[in-house]
Amino acid sequence: MRNLFYAFLLLLSPALQAQVTQFGSFKISDGEVIYQKVFNEDSITVDKMVKFLKTVPTIGNIQPGDGTVTADLLFMTIDFKKLKVASATTPTIMQTGNFTGQLIFEIKSGKYRASLRNIKMKGDTGTKKITEPENMTGWCTTDNGTALQPAWCKPTCLGVLEQQISDRIKYKKTDTDWE
User: Fold this and answer.
1) pLDDT in tens, 30-68
2) CATH topology of domain 20-169
């Protein structure tokens, strides 16, 4: 019976040490933390997406393509009032940080997939003041970028950042959409 117990512990051990590689819309892809989410949106087109993105103040360098739109996310900060989250419960970098990255929108009939790559951050981590944008992957991963840090896999950390990004890039009809 004891041998069976030890065999069970040996089998269970790797499962208990499983690495987290995804949290919400954030995942590790090719050694980089990216945000990727599919939004359902009837009658979305490249032109409508471009028109919408031009109304978002923290998005610039908008480039339409064949079924895609690329853009830059510029100095986005977390709007705690809009998200209805107490800033005191979030890590310092979420309170003080601003985030940048490269957006790619892949548009298909009735939906689009938004990806944010090359995510960089500036701000105060509590242990270091980051004055020049640094790649977020180095801060929120362990094991050479193969697993997400448990401290970042919380609703008050990556969860808040995910809400802010999703709110920012969720298509909303502009005033000129009278279709």
Assistant:
1) 999 999 999 999 999 999 999 999 999 999 999 999 999
2) Alpha-D-Glucose-1,6-Bisphosphate; Chain A, domain 4 (3.30.530)
